[in-house]
Amino acid sequence: MSTRTLGQIIESVPASEGAGVKLRRSLGGAHGLRVDPFLLLDEFSSENPGDYVAGFPAHPHRGFETVTYLLDGHMLHEDHLGHRGDLKTGGVQWMTAGRGIIHSEMPQQDNGRLRGFQLWINLPAREKMKAATYRDLQANEIPVVALPGGGTAKVIAGTIESEGRTTAGPIRGGITDPIYLDISLPAGGRFSYPIDSEYSAFLYPYVGSLDVGANGATHGLGAHSAGVLTPGDRIDVTAGKEGARFLVLAGRPLREPVVQYGPFVMNTREEIEQAVRDFQSGALTRT
């Protein structure tokens, strides 16, 4: 088996979204900083309500999926279809915007820590105009697997094998067949994960640091940076001296043109122009 190494490091940069929510953006921080099929990764974390309390008022999307993973806090999702869902500590919302959705994501707290991630996953051309859907997952619906030598793996999407037993996350399949793991390792702890050699993959440490690679050919990856991995059929990492928490994100690349204008992601400029017209006319959300 060939172990993947670090091919690129995308450092996160400060950004502001919604009504002024402060966050850090790695993927999507500049034009072309994507890992097909992943378009964007935002990390938000603050105990200062001034950094997050204004939230993300109503805004549109078309052509991709958003995955919100809340480590700490409480947010409320509402959309034009009448859906309403509470996202609490440890929970995930997996939303497929499809042909169009207008939704809001508003904090339900005015103090304490709000911490989590939002990931954007592209949809293939043939699915960009399908009906919008979403799924809310509470913390107790997401399996946590003990890893050999210590540590845990939270399996949001995909599968993981540990001690001869395969555990599947609640999200699996689809064209991009996404893998979304949240791994926690003690100091010096190791994590190995077999992966389809055709899939794109990256790591995102948010606590501590990692050595990526094996057999002496390792490279360091610090917190709050996305480490894009080279081709291979195995991921091998070792946590730094303070331990580590990190995301493993992988999926089948679409290899299609990407044209993005803010909250719209399509394949051509003409489709983007149509999305803007549909939003302005109200057709974006008409079934």
Key traits:
single chain; 287 residues; mainly beta; nine-stranded antiparallel sheet; seven-stranded antiparallel sheet; globular
Structural notes for this entry:
The strands form 5 sheets. Strands 1, 13, 14, 17, 18, 19, 20, 21 and 22 form a 9-stranded antiparallel β-sheet that branches. The model has no long low-confidence stretch (mean pLDDT 94). The protein is globular. The chain is built from 1 helix and 24 strands. By secondary structure, the chain is mainly beta.
Q: What fraction strand? A: over 45%
What is the helical fraction, as a range of percent? under 10%
The residue-averaged pLDDT reads 94
End-to-end separation in angstroms reads 48 Å
Q: What's the total helix number?
A: 1
Question: Roughly how many Å is the radius of gyration?
Answer: 19 Å
The total beta strand count reads: 24
**Uncertain segments:** none
Global morphology: globular
What is the N-to-C order of secondary-structure elements (H for helix, E for strand)? EEEEEEEEEEEEEEEEEEEEEEEEH
Biggest sheet statistics: 9 strands, antiparallel
Structural class comes to mainly beta
Quick rundown:
The protein has one helix and 24 strands. The chain is mainly beta.
What topology emerges from the helices and strands here?
Layout: E1 6-11, E2 13-17, E3 21-25, E4 38-46, E5 56-61, E6 64-72, E7 74-79, E8 84-88, E9 92-96, E10 101-107, E11 114-122, E12 133-137, E13 144-146, E14 152-157, E15 159-162, E16 165-168, E17 179-185, E18 190-194, E19 200-214, E20 217-221, E21 225-229, E22 234-251, E23 259-261, E24 264-266, H1 269-281
Antiparallel strand pairs: 1-21, 2-3, 3-4, 4-11, 5-10, 6-9, 6-11, 7-8, 7-10, 9-12, 13-14, 14-17, 15-16, 17-22, 18-22, 19-20, 19-21, 19-22, 23-24
